[in-house]
Amino acid sequence: MGVIRLSNICSVYQVHPVLDASVRTLCRLPYPGHVHGCPNFAKKEGCPPKAPMLHRYLDLAQPVFAVVHEFDFAGHVERMKAAHPTWSDRQLRCCLYWQGGARKLWKVGIKEFLWSHPGYTAVACPEAQGVIITETMRLVGVDLEWPPVKVARQVALCGVRLRE
Question: Is the pTM of this model over 0.90?
Answer without folding.
Answer: no
